């Protein structure tokens, strides 16, 4: 049995790592198990990526109970090792154990309490802590970029009040000026929060402003970036600070993202760049992950190696700006991807640390055709910097995406992705000078093709036939796609424009066996989401625009993209005009 001990209270001042929530997830054989994601001690992460050698669990009890310290393997075997099993008659006890060796199987530690009959829930509190001195004293600077998300902001800043662990917060406001004054009566007074009103420069511009301000202050060691449409745990900065107190200096920390509406559903615990490009794959099992189950906790406790983490919750050493520069000024979408990948290439890996997490509004709720503009433009600039894809492969990917959306009559997305390629051709300086006015104009330009009139939709739905989503595949699919493209470009008739509707939640695809000229798409609640109409004239115009943009892309494919601009040594005084 591993050397463990139960000790009486001492007068030392241990470092608190995190506290158990006292919300047991399950009762097993009469024992209360505190094995939820926010309660466990992710041993493999602490042993591999920090200098911590041992951990203690300080328990406060209301009466006698049996305490068990358990090590659980996360390889799918459900194997558990009992490290300590003692009866405690005192009001306080400390269970101690050395951490598993670096090369040991992946595991986490959990507490199990067997209560006496007179004390059905004896645990008053339990804290994972250590008496080992910290190797550094981090000071975390939180940065939140916000745009008209005041209810979220009030809720999150209220939770963080008094729990900044010696750090500070900067709120960069891109909405109407005067945010601090508007929220004054809704928030407790907090000198640890600084408010900045500035002209909307997108998420990338807001987060970069926060980084530069924290850097100028001089006492911040790490920056923690967070979105404004999240729910955050009230101890998230304390947990982050505790991890950074013992972690290796090059480590970056990522927090998992859970579904705001379905609280136990994992969206991502870090992100991977798929081979051959900047397409993203999430660290999440394909069958889904429910963190209310042992299998869900086991998955998150495994050591994953993401390329980056979304800025819904991401912490990195501020000194990294001296080594890799500032994030790419891409306004929105892709700043976290490129910057995280740049950090990894510079030897600063990101870890999706179990127990660091937020609840975020689902991205599907916010999907819009104009997103394609930023996805295409920003990934091309990122590729020009990092050279992950060659010209021929890039052309193939772009043409494939163009054809897919053209054949589903999604002319807004086609227009957005073509404008994105053309914007790349204009050079990195144009991206750096992109403003909210350019953004608004781009949205207007890419939101004119689709019919979204509710009255029209209701009229069509009353006579629309149900379209079954049957797919073609293989060679037949390829031939059918080519044939449909020829029909659209030549304008040859394809039959009467009878309206067809899809079952709620079904996505309209161009490789369905039947391809009507008018398709109605509904969301999961059955509400009309989009109406797609075949328009051969627009198909021809869109194809010519795309060909022109692709020729320009070939010429500018390896253009120079500065590493983090403006310069990380630039004074923030030039950015203060929006204050």
From TrEMBL:
Pfam families xrefs: Glft2_N, Glyco_tranf_2_3
Alphabetical UniProt keywords: Glycosyltransferase, Transferase
Molecular function (Gene Ontology), one example: glycosyltransferase activity
Enzyme Commission number, as recorded: 2.4.-.-
InterPro entries for this protein: GlfT2_N, Nucleotide-diphossugar_trans
Galactofuranosyltransferase GlfT2 N-terminal domain ranges (all copies): 31-80
Name under which the protein is recorded: Glycosyltransferase
